[in-house]
Write a structure and sequence with these properties.
alpha+beta; FAD/NAD(P)-binding domain; six-stranded mixed beta sheet
Length: about 500
C-alpha cells in the first residue's frame, strides 16, 4: 500500500527553458513547505532554444512567479509581440496578421464576425473593410506601434493583447537565478541511468556519469527530445503526427538588426516550409522550418543565408524533430515537461506555452506519494487534448492553401486532416461558425484570423445577424473601424516604448 505522505524530494532532469520554468514555479509554490528541489544539467549538453517568440498566456505565468516585466525584458533582450504576420500562405502575394486581442464587439449574443460577414455578403467588401480593421492589436502591429493595454474595461485599447520576443537562453538563465535564490539546488552532471522499483516500476533514483546517485519522490523529465526518463526508461511510446505536419527539420541563424524591431513575428511560406523572423533588442532570430522529404539540409541552409536580411552573427544551428507527442506525459512518478513530452513545431509560438501548461496542470493536480491514478489520468487527458487542439490549429495553416507551385504545397493542399479539424473547417465554410472544444488554447478570434487570412471565406453567416437593419450595421462598422484606427495611431512607436521602459543598456548574450 502506497503512503499518502507529501512529496519531499523533486528531481528535475535537464535545464533549459523547460527545466528552469519548472524549477521557478515549483520553488515558488513548494519552497516554503520544505520540499527539496534539485535540477541536474550539464553545460556540455546544449539546449534546443526554439522558443524565442511567445503568446499572451506567458504573462500569466510570469505574474505567478512575481516577475517584473520590464526587468525580465531587459534581462532577455526582449521586445513586445502583437501577433504574427503571415506572407504567401494562402497564395503567393497574400499577407495577413494573426493578432492577439479580439475583433469588434459581439452584439446581442451573436459573434461580431457574423455582422461583418453580413455586410460583406450583402453590401460588398468595400462596405465591410478588412477584418483586421476591427482589431486594435492588428492595427497597432501594422503601424509598428505598441503600448500596454490600459483604460476602462470595454474600451478599444483594453482589448489589445500582447506577448514577447526574447532570447530563450537568457530567459532560462534569468529563471535559474531566481530559482537558486528560492532554494533550488543545481547539480552539474550528466544522467546516465535511472533506477526503478521492482514492484511497480516507479523511479527511485538517477545515476550521474561520475557515479553520484540522486533519489527522488517525483521526477520531471526535461531532457529534451531524448526523453531520458519518460521514453528511454519508462518506455512510453511516441505518437507520430508527421502525416499531417510535414515539416521535420529546422535551421536557425541569428543576424544583426537592420532597423527598429517590429512588434510582431514574421512567418513567410517558402518552397518546402516557412521562414521565421523574430526581432529582439540586440539581434534578429531567423530560421527555416522545412520538410526533409522536399528539401535537403544544404539547400535549406543556403536558402536561409539567401533570405536573411542582416549580417549573420553566428553559425547556423540545425534541428531534426518528429512532430507529435508521447502517449502519456505523466507515467508513474515521472512527468515530462517540454520537448521530452512532445513537439508541434514553432509556427504559432506554442512551445513555451505547452511547457507552461504542463507545469501549471501539475501544480493543479499535485500528487502526494500515493500518486493517485485518477489524478494522473486526468492530467494526461487534459494535456493530450491541449496538444491535439494545438496540432489542429497548426495543420490548418498548411491545409488551407491554394498554392500548387511546389510538390510540398501540393502535398499540403491535398492531404487528409484529422476529423476534428475537418469538422471545424466545414462548419466555417457554411455559415462562418467556429466550434470550440475544451481545452482550446486558440479561441474564435484566432481561428477567424487564419481561416479568413488564408481565403477560407464562408458561404453565408449566422441568420441572427440579419435581425438588425443592414444599413445600421454598416454604419456601426464604419464607426468602429475609425475608432480602432484612431486608437492604434495614437500609440507610441514600438522602439520608443522599449527605450522608455525596458531597454537593455548593455548587450547580453546567452551562454
Amino acid at each position: 500500500m502506497r503512503t499518502r505522505e507529501p512529496i519531499r524530494n523533486i528531481v528535475i532532469i535537464g535545464g533549459g527553458t523547460a527545466g528552469w520554468m519548472a524549477a521557478a514555479a515549483l520553488s515558488g509554490v513548494l519552497g516554503r513547505a520544505g520540499t527539496r528541489i534539485t535540477l541536474v544539467e550539464s553545460d556540455e549538453i546544449g539546449t534546443v532554444g526554439v522558443g524565442e517568440a511567445t503568446i499572451p498566456s506567458l504573462l500569466e505565468f510570469n505574474a505567478i512567479l512575481g516577475l517584473d516585466e520590464n526587468e525580465m525584458l531587459r534581462e532577455t533582450n526582449g521586445t513586445f509581440k502583437l501577433g504574427i504576420e503571415f506572407l504567401d500562405w494562402g497564395r503567393i502575394g497574400d499577407h495577413y496578421i494573426h493578432p492577439f486581442g479580439s475583433y469588434g464587439r459581439n452584439l446581442e449574443g451573436v459573434d461580431f464576425h457574423h455582422f461583418w460577414l453580413a455586410v460583406r455578403q450583402r453590401l460588398g467588401a468595400g462596405a465591410a473593410g478588412d477584418i483586421s480593421d476591427y482589431n486594435v492589436t492588428a492595427k497597432a502591429a501594422s503601424l509598428g506601434r505598441f503600448s500596454r493595454p490600459s483604460g476602462n474595461r470595454g474600451t478599444i485599447l483594453s482589448t489589445l493583447a500582447y506577448a514577447y520576443h526574447f532570447d530563450a537562453a537568457l530567459y532560462a538563465r534569468y529563471l535559474r537565478r531566481l530559482s537558486e535564490q528560492a532554494g533550488v539546488e543545481r547539480i552539474e552532471g550528466k544522467v546516465v541511468s535511472a533506477q526503478r522499483r521492482a514492484e511497480d516500476g516507479f523511479l527511485t533514483s538517477v545515476t550521474l556519469e561520475d557515479g553520484r546517485v540522486l533519489e527522488g519522490d517525483l521526477f520531471l523529465d526535461c531532457s529534451g527530445f531524448r526523453a531520458l526518463l519518460l521514453g528511454e526508461t519508462l518506455g512510453v511510446e511516441y505518437r507520430d503526427w508527421s502525416s499531417w505536419l510535414p515539416c521535420d527539420r529546422a535551421v536557425a541563424l541569428p543576424v544583426a538588426s537592420v532597423g527598429p524591431p517590429q512588434p510582431y513575428t514574421r512567418a513567410t511560406a517558402d518552397l518546402a516550409g516557412w521562414r521565421w523572423r523574430i526581432p529582439l533588442q540586440h539581434r534578429v532570430g531567423t530560421g527555416y522550418v522545412y520538410s526533409s522529404a522536399h528539401l535537403d539540409r544544404e539547400a535549406a541552409t543556403a536558402r536561409i543565408f539567401e533570405t536573411a536580411a542582416g549580417v549573420p552573427l553566428g553559425d547556423p544551428r540545425h534541428l531534426d524533430f518528429t512532430p507529435g507527442r508521447r502517449e502519456r506525459l505523466w507515467e508513474a512518478n515521472c512527468v515530462a515537461i517540454g520537448l521530452a513530452g512532445g513537439f508541434i513545431e514553432p509556427l504559432e509560438s506554442t512551445s513555451i506555452h505547452l511547457i507552461q501548461k504542463g507545469i501549471t496542470r501539475l501544480l493543479a493536480l499535485f500528487p502526494d506519494r500515493s500518486f493517485d491514478p485518477e489524478e494522473i489520468r486526468e492530467y494526461n487527458r487534459l494535456v493530450a487534448a491541449e496538444y491535439e487542439m494545438v496540432r489542429d490549429f497548426i495543420i490548418l495553416h498548411y491545409k488551407a492553401t491554394e498554392r500548387d507551385d511546389t510538390p510540398f504545397w501540393r502535398h499540403c493542399r491535398d492531404m487528409s486532416v484529422p476529423d476534428s479539424l475537418a469538422h471545424k473547417m466545414a462548419l466555417f465554410r457554411g455559415k462562418g461558425r467556429i466550434v470550440q472544444f475544451e481545452p482550446d488554447l486558440f479561441g474564435i478570434d484566432n481561428w477567424l484570423a487564419v481561416m479568413l487570412g488564408q481565403n477560407l471565406v464562408p458561404e453565408s453567416h449566422d441568420p441572427l445577424a440579419d435581425t438588425a437593419p443592414i444599413d445600421q450595421v454598416a454604419g456601426y462598422l464604419a464607426e468602429l473601424r475609425a475608432a480602432v484606427a484612431n486608437t492604434a495611431e495614437a500609440l507610441p512607436i514600438h522602439a520608443d516604448y522599449i527605450r522608455a521602459h525596458c531597454a537593455n543598456g548593455g548587450e547580453r548574450h546567452a551562454g
